[in-house]
Amino acid sequence: MKKSIQVIAAVVIFSVASAFKPAVNPELEIGKAMPNPAAKMMDIGGKEVSLTDVKGENGLLVIFSCNTCPYVKLSESRIKESAALAKKNKIGVILVNSNEAQRSDDDSFDAMKKYAASQGYDFNYVVDKNSQLANAFGATRTPHCFLFDKKALVYRGAIDDNIKDAKDAKEHYLNDALTAVGSGKQVKTNSSKSVGCSIKRLEE
Q1: Structural domain boundaries enclosing 175
Q2: Which long-range contacts (CB under 8 A, 24 or more apart) does 100-105 make?
Q3: Residue 100: inside a domain
Q4: Which of 8, 127, 139, 168 fits 64 for a cystine, CB–CB 3.0-4.6 Å?
Q5: 112-146 pLDDT per residue, tens
Q6: How many domains does the chain have?
Q7: pTM confidence score
């Protein structure tokens, strides 16, 4: 009897814990619509914006990023290059910081503002409260890219095939996809493996 009560108690505790643990979806599939397009997030400029607000005439580039990941720092020049290419092709750009477990530290809102200024960002950089957008997208890494055309997801994954050194990259997945979307053509390589730091969710 005592053992049965202990088992029931353990099940109840696990169920309650699971109920409060944010659900992380599988990585968003190619051809799927943009999740949570109207959800507002605080931008470093002090204004709340949604994905719909930032979306351009031809689509939207969403990059899950942060201030702290070494892989993001290795990718900064590429992120800015891709952002400029996106704008040239009438595609909106938004960087999303989902590191909720580090929000009181180096990924705080104030730290984001300082980091963006140091990098010369000229695009939106927002706080993903409780990693809600990352969970909806199934984003797991920083940087992790998701490119939408006018209707749906057309590319997801890495910027290129060499996270450590841009000069040695042979496949430029994201820029090729941006050019294709801007030209109204089909994206040839629509998925690659994102390499980087894990997104620091609260339950971690």
Answers
A1: 24-198
A2: 100/128, 100/129, 100/130, 100/131, 100/200, 100/201, 100/202, 101/200, 101/201, 101/202, 101/204, 102/66, 102/68, 102/200, 103/127
A3: yes
A4: 139
A5: 999 999 999 999 999 999 999 999 999 999 999 99
A6: 1
A7: 0.89
